[in-house]
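Handout, tutorial session.
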Amino acid sequence: MSNPSPASSVEALYRYPVKGLSGELLEQVTVRPGETFPFDRAYAIENGKGRFDPLSPKHLPKINFLMLMRDERLATLESRFDTDSRVLTILRDGKQVARGQLSSPSGRQMIEQFLAAYMQASLRGAPRIVSADGQSFSDVAAKCVHIVNIASAVDLGRMTGKPVDPLRFRANIYLDGLPPWQELEWAGRTLRIGEVELKVFARTERCAATDVDPATGARDMSIPAALQRSKGHTDFGVYATIATAGTLRRGDVVAAGA
């Protein structure tokens, strides 16, 4: 089983404060064992009357929320979230179209009213922004981070004949300097990135959300089908749990253990 190249390192770090909306590039992030990146998928947008109870939060399937697998128009929006004020700003074509403080009912209502109009064709009812202390609206129940190898995206582009933007995969950690597809061998192994230890527990099975161009919102590729044809599976990237506290930084060196 191969180890990462000595030159392999973190190319980018991202969090996605609101499930389905755009990500935010981070220079560094401080993490704790058993947790996600702070404010990653901390909010979600229920598609009509839903089952999420903030007083008794549970992981729910992503079909309960607005998300790129079905609602690609979300990708035409740019979102910016301020962690201190909890203010979410939404822009389209560089212009502000909605702004509200997600910690207040009136602030959430400002965002919900915009989404009700903008996402009308996708809605089963009035949208509702939901959250709960400690809740992460990831596609998987485990609190974890998602890791993608940029070289694998480049190789997938070679196989499909069209460049594949790694941001299609909405990962938290993007790695550079690895051989293509090496990360798929890491399930069950320990990974050290800079001063932080992580435990890889699963490969990431991809869905139709990756068919959406993150820059335009166009559903212009069939990524799961391309993976199945070329690799015999639909896995791209891996999930890992944070094992030790520390700060992850862009440029951190990557090493894999047993």
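The second record follows below. Compare its token runs with those of the first.
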Amino acid sequence: MPGGAPEGNHNAAKGRRWQQAIDRALARRSKSSGIEELDRLADEFLKEVEAQSITGFRELGDRLDGKAAQQVLVGTDPENPLTIQHKIG
């Protein structure tokens, strides 16, 4: 069985629509394919971080290190344990 999404699945393309819209908006605002505008926005972002905005710090951390892993607890009730069933055939 080949890996990946089923034939006809367009979910990945939908996920890029936001990135494409940002790229177009940056290009409209700047002469060099959005680079100057992106740099200006990065400067504004760092000003927010410097102003000790917790949101700014969180965003900076997410950009530099990725979002923190979330803990998921599974099967913590001994009266109702997690069971895994394998279907064969």
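Points raised in discussion: The chain has one domain: 14-89.
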